[in-house]
Design goal:
Length: 406
């Protein structure tokens, strides 16, 4: 079971005041805070093991390489992949999607072809496909969602045709909290013979993910949203898909041999990982996975589900406040608007009282357009948040409304 006091003691950043108030950090969908074990691992790498990987026989290089390679195996285990070689290190979800768009999709896309995404996608799961599609005369089509923020899964088969070359869908919406039935979507894609990528940035910190059970061709995530460092993430890809891909970048470590006339490429994963990687970040990501394993993702999911239910009830009871996104299956996100108050004003007021929330369109403008709004305030919760923090949030929101309207 989750003990919030014990958990919070592991996160140094939470022990501070902001604007004279104890920090209440409710911006976890943007980035999570880091436990001391992750921070320590990054520091220790630079203090003791700083060296490049896979390129030296000296002790520091061996130690750095071991830590780096161990994280790849940890990710394989976390995602339930068959082989560690199916894990490609990238800077995060955004680079992972760009990697697949340029290395896999670009080589098979033709004029008139179509890429299918959903209306609730983060811009990082829209723009990379546009950058590849538009110069080639291909186009993007969207899976609609209903007023609750649930994808209309029944529409997918009707949107797929002989021109559909790829599908990319978010596992958990960052702006609505919707948990999509990705296994069902992957079954539809497989039946149609269409490769599919799942954006797992918001899923991995909150629930068990088994890529073989889901049945996707690619799965991407970011370390910084799961208690790891920034600038590191990974792509899972089925071996046959990764081997089909062209390198996204050229440079060191991704080659087998180089002459001025021709270059032959290394095997995966090296083929898709050019240059010196984020070694410290990768080692830190490994420690973040260790942390999640120690706490237990099932415990985190249960605790956050209870906290979400509590927060939804309390926040939803505030006069003039509307919760945006009421899907049947949600992760720990509550996005909301208050009639007559801009979301930036909400965020500014809360920050004055030490409460950190996110405001804006959350890089999901198509989703905002579905609701006819420009932005929301978003409180996103982690297992280090508490009901007492929710209560303080509610108090400050009510105080703001009283001041604003009276």
């Amino acid at each position: 079971m989750i003990n919030p006091e014990e958990i919070r003691a592991r996160f140094p950043v939470l022990d501070q005041e902001v604007n004279g108030h104890p920090l209440i950090y409710l911006d976890n969908a943007a980035t999570t805070q880091k436990p001391n074990t992750v921070i320590k691992s990054v520091t220790e790498y630079y203090e003791k093991d700083n060296s490049n990987v896979h390129r030296g026989i000296h002790t520091l290089s061996q130690r750095a390489s071991d830590g780096y390679d161990e994280t790849r195996e940890k990710i394989r285990g976390m995602l339930g992949a068959k082989e560690a070689e199916e894990i490609i290190f990238v800077r995060g979800t955004t680079e992972g999607i760009n990697l697949v768009a340029n290395g896999f999709l670009r080589r098979i896309l033709e004029p008139g072809d179509e890429i299918l995404v959903s209306q609730m996608e983060h811009h990082a799961n829209i723009v990379p496909w546009q950058l590849v599609a538009h110069p080639l005369g291909a186009k993007i089509k969207s899976i609609p969602m209903d007023e609750n923020g649930d994808l209309m899964i029944e529409k997918i088969e009707g949107l797929i045709n002989s021109k559909t070359k790829f599908i990319s869908v978010v596992h958990v919406s960052n702006s609505l909290g919707t948990i999509n039935p990705v296994k069902e979507i992957c079954e539809i894609a497989k039946k149609a013979g269409v490769p599919i990528l799942i954006d797992g940035a918001q899923a991995v910190p909150h629930m068990n993910v088994d890529v073989l059970d889901i049945g996707c061709d690619f799965y991407v995530f970011s370390g910084h949203k799961m208690y790891g460092p920034t600038g590191i993430g990974a792509v899972y890809g089925k071996r046959e898909r990764l081997e089909e891909m062209d390198p996204y970048q050229g440079g060191g470590d991704m080659i087998r041999s180089v002459t001025f006339e021709e270059t032959t490429y290394n095997q995966i994963p090296a083929k898709l990982e050019a240059g010196t990687p984020n070694i410290a970040g990768t080692i830190g990501l490994g420690k973040a996975i260790d942390y999640l394993k120690e706490i237990g993702i099932e415990n985190i999911e249960k605790y956050e589900s209870e906290l979400l239910e509590y927060a939804t009830e309390k926040i939803g009871a505030i006069d003039k406040l509307t919760i945006i996104g009421s899907a049947k299956n949600k992760a720990s996100v509550v996005s909301f608007t208050i009639d007559g108050i801009h979301s930036h004003d909400i965020g500014g007021w809360l920050d004055e009282h030490g409460i950190a929330v996110r405001t804006g369109h959350h890089c999901t403008q198509p989703a905002m357009n579905c609701y006819g709004i420009n932005s929301t305030a978003r409180a996103s919760f982690s297992h280090y948040n508490t009901k007492e923090e929710v209560d303080k949030l509610v108090v400050k929101l009510k105080e703001m409304c009283d001041w604003w309207f009276n």
